[in-house]
Amino acid sequence: MLPDGRSGRPTANQTMKIIIAGGTGFLGRALCAGLAADGHEVVVLSRSAHAAPAGATLVQWTPDGSVGSWAAALDGAGAVINLAGESIAARRWTAGQRARIRESRVLATRSLVLAIGHAAKPPAVLISGSAVGYYGPCGDEPVTEDSGPGHDFLAEVCQAWEAEARKVAPRTRLVLVRTGLVLERNGGALPQMLLPFRLFAGGPVGSGRQYWPWIHRDDWLGLVRLAIDREDLNGPMNATSPHPVTNAAFSQALGRALHRPSWLPAPAFALRIALGEMADALLLSGQRAVPSRATKAGYRFRFEELQPALDTILKQR
Ligand SMILES: NC(=O)c1ccc[n+]([C@@H]2O[C@H](COP(=O)([O-])OP(=O)(O)OC[C@H]3O[C@@H](n4cnc5c(N)ncnc54)[C@H](OP(=O)(O)O)[C@@H]3O)[C@@H](O)[C@H]2O)c1
Question: What is the position in ligand 1's atom list of the atom closest to the CA of 63?
Answer without folding.
Answer: 33
